[in-house]
Write a structure and sequence with these properties.
Elements: H1 3-15, H2 20-27, H3 31-39, H4 42-51
Length: 65
């Protein structure tokens, strides 16, 4: 699930009356993650998602001895 999907799912479950603990349990995430997502407005999410850059891990070359 990508970050936008997670954000929307958390918002929907909270609107349906789920507790933050139940949301975390249902989605398999920590309560602190639920709280962090709930603190963000949709415009905050846009900024955050746009700022995330995927980094590639350099491949280590095997050296002959």
């Amino acid at each position: 699930m990508d970050k936008w999907e997670m954000y929307m799912e958390i918002q929907q479950l909270i609107k349906k009356g789920f507790s933050k603990s139940k949301v975390a349990e249902k989605l398999g995430i920590s309560r602190s993650t639920v709280y962090r997502y709930l603190e963000k407005t949709p415009s905050d999410m846009v900024e955050w998602v746009d700022s995330i850059q995927t980094r590639s891990i350099p491949v280590m070359k095997e050296f002959e001895v």
